[in-house]
Amino acid sequence: MSDEITHPEGELIAARERARRQWKLDAISTGTGVFLALFMWGHMFFVSTILTGERGFNWVANMFEHYWLAQPTVVLVTVVFFVHFVTASRKIPAKLADRKRLKKLGDDISESEWNISKEDRAELEKVRAHKETSLWIWQVRSGMIILALGSIHLFIVGADVAQRTFGIGEAMGINAAETMARVKDGMWLLYAVLLFMVEVHAGIGLYRVTVKWGLGTRIPIIGSRITRRMAGTMETVVLWFFLIIGFLTLLVMAGVLEPPLAFLLATGGTQG
């Protein structure tokens, strides 16, 4: 009799422990993802200083390296990068098949919607929400590409920082001339793909985090609550904003476009 009572209790305790462990992993995945997204957007602003010319880019790069901001940042971002990959990808094998099946169900509903009654349509709207699985699938695909290309980029940046920190070779560190030469020599394709995938991945992640953790939250000052539509609009605005800045930066790096903001650092002593 006691075994019949304790066995279900043991299963319940084990289920609670699994749920608690999954929640912790979800929190780590979300936290590291938000950190990386914020870092990448900050990194984008740093790299976009090339829009003011080589002098502006080099000034910022030298400041980060001189005050030992770049060195620990490279190590921290690398660790967080791989922690995020491990925690975010743990559910991929199980979820991918389920989400593809739900997407197909949603597509079938859309195709046959003309002969669905109003009552059934209201019920099926619950399933329609799973069409957002397309975003999740794209996030998985972009994540795989980012893992490969991002690792290469982290290695290159880490090597540049280590070069100056430990006096290896010419010890130039991160600088505009070497970075632009690298882009012109063919790295522009890697950076173009990486840029697009990072912004898509971060944009979708921002949307999904907002929907999961912030839907219905009241926004201070404005007073309105966060809706799914608002989250989608925010994702679109952020995506296009950073894509435009990123590709303008890449065009300058590749020598296709002159720095459009060079006038900001222009000096009046260029005559004579």
From TrEMBL:
The organism named in the record is marine metagenome
Q: Where are the transmembrane segments?
A: 25-46, 66-86, 135-156, 188-209, 237-257
Q: Which GO terms describe its molecular function?
A: metal ion binding
Keywords from the named record? Heme, Iron, Membrane, Metal-binding, Transmembrane, Transmembrane helix
Where in or outside the cell it occurs: the entry states: Membrane
Q: Name one GO biological process term.
A: tricarboxylic acid cycle
The name this protein carries in UniProt is Uncharacterized protein
- Taxonomic classification: unclassified sequences, metagenomes, ecological metagenomes
Could you name the Gene Ontology cellular component terms for this entry? membrane
